[in-house]
Amino acid sequence: MLDFVRLEADLDEEERLIRDTAREFVDDRVRPDAGDNFEAGTFPTELVSEMGELGFYAPNLEGYGSPNVSETAYGLLMQELEAGDSGVRSMASVQGALVMYPIHAYGSERQKSEWLPTLGSGEAVGCFGLTEPEHGSNPAGMETSARRDGDEYLLNGSKTWITNAPIADLAVVWARDRSSEGDPIRGFLVETDRDGVTTNEITGKLSLRASSTGEIGLNDVAVPAESVLPDVSGMKGPLSCLTQARYGIAWGAVGAARDCFEQARSYALDRDQFGGPIAQFQLQQEKLAEMATQITLGQLLAYRLAELKERGELRPQHVSMAKRNNVRTARETSRVAREILGGNGITTDHSPMRHMANMETVYTYEGTHDIHTLILGEELTGIQAFR
Ligand code: TGC
Ligand code: FAD
Prior knowledge:
Pfam families: Acyl-CoA_dh_1, Acyl-CoA_dh_M, Acyl-CoA_dh_N. One of its GO terms (biological process) is fatty acid beta-oxidation using acyl-CoA dehydrogenase. This protein is of the alpha+beta class. It folds into three domains: 7-125, Butyryl-Coa Dehydrogenase, subunit A, domain 1; 127-227, Butyryl-CoA Dehydrogenase, subunit A, domain 2, CATH 2.40.110; 236-381, Butyryl-CoA Dehydrogenase, subunit A, domain 3. It has ten helices and eleven strands. It has helices spanning 13-40, 46-53, 71-84, 86-106, 109-121, 236-270, 282-311, 316-340, 352-364, 369-381, and strands at residues 62-63, 66-67, 126-129, 145-149, 152-163, 170-177, 185-191, 197-198, 213-224, 272-273, 276-277. The strands form three sheets. Strands 3, 4, 5, 6, 7, 8 and 9 form a seven-stranded mixed β-sheet that branches. Strands 1-2 form a two-stranded antiparallel sheet. Helix 6 (236-270) runs antiparallel to helix 7, helix 7 (282-311) runs antiparallel to helix 8 (316-340) and helix 8 (316-340) runs antiparallel to helix 9 (352-364). The longest helix has 35 residues, at 236-270. The radius of gyration is 21 Å and the shape is globular. The relative contact order is 0.12. Bound molecules: 3-thiaglutaryl-CoA and flavin-adenine dinucleotide (FAD). The site of flavin-adenine dinucleotide has 21 residues, from strand 3, strand 5, helix 9 and helix 10.
């Protein structure tokens, strides 16, 4: 497995164990059906509880059943899952970074004890509703509203492109609190079986096919006042969750890129043309050398992010650089790997074209490549260029 500058030599025992457990899970439970699930457009729901049993949901959190593993261990987990398929990593990272994290960081004691253990075990599935039909890159423009009505809030609005929504028991819904001064954005824990909630599946996706994606409709949905996350208000609530998830994506994308590289290297060594393996031709070697170099740079960035996160020095801009760079690397690597596989590369028998299709989503969600460019641009110049 590509680890050119021996980063894995420094892993501790727990990190190795988590990496190996996730790698074995992907080999046994994800890879064999990944092509079929992609073709059928189905998320393998049987993996939800299996991943829970293996402790794959937010193991970097502390308490309520989470073991507080290192940020490197968490990153390696995301890397191995995405080497299998981005849909599986997406399920785990939404559950952990976008649902368990906000409850852990901003929830009441009661919300934490009610939801964290069941989400952690995979008994309950969560989703994160931020994007709306008219507000994608600029979620601060959201229209979904919450109005206080006695001991309850009434929620109205719609969210779209929501990973896990059709299979979720709980939605973290971000809405404008119209009953408070300044209409601040607040997070609400909404059970999906409440009256007025709909979670329709989005069909026809050509990317991230092995993932369940849906819309959330909220039509006069009454939730108790204690469903609001009490400890956060404003855009930093959802944006801080995105920082956690983007961190996982920066690692995950390296896994997808590595899987493409390994497939291409092995194919190039096996495939004979003009009397020998195609790996003997300089053109193919250049492609492998470039892929290996870019993947190694992505790994270095991911490992450095883990160190900064452990020290409490990780800034959202660091994560933007890594998400932006590593997803671009995976997108490019998957295309070149497919090239090396020739005609055989366009089928689901091999992973690169599936990863290539998945990367179109990963390049777009959690802040598009352009948005991360602008976040970095602002950091480097002090000039905001979004508006
Ligand atoms: P802005 O005025 O810049 O900031 C508002 C407040 O938030 C703070 N902040 C952050 N905090 C933590 N992490 C971050 N990444 C943060 N970015 C900003 C900021 O310090 C400020 O705090 P305070 O205390 O001063 O109030 O906010 P803005 O509304 O202008 O936003 C700027 C922008 C464009 C960067 C932001 O809207 C953005 O990132 N847009 C991209 C939207 C996006 O990423 N959507 C993702 C939806 S979820 C998803 O895609 C899940 S896919 C999951 C899967 O399947 O894996
Ligand atoms: P838009 O914001 O309309 O952008 C369209 C294009 O314009 C992009 O190329 C963008 O980069 C560019 N653009 C936008 N603004 C600017 C600017 N200021 N300067 C330059 N260029 C700009 N969301 C959730 O809340 N929860 C989820 O679980 C979730 N899961 C998803 C799963 C999938 C499969 C997909 C595809 C999306 C998911 N999303 C989710 C939504 C995702 O976060 C959004 O698609 C993303 O933020 C971009 O928003 P948009 O699609 O509306 O594109």
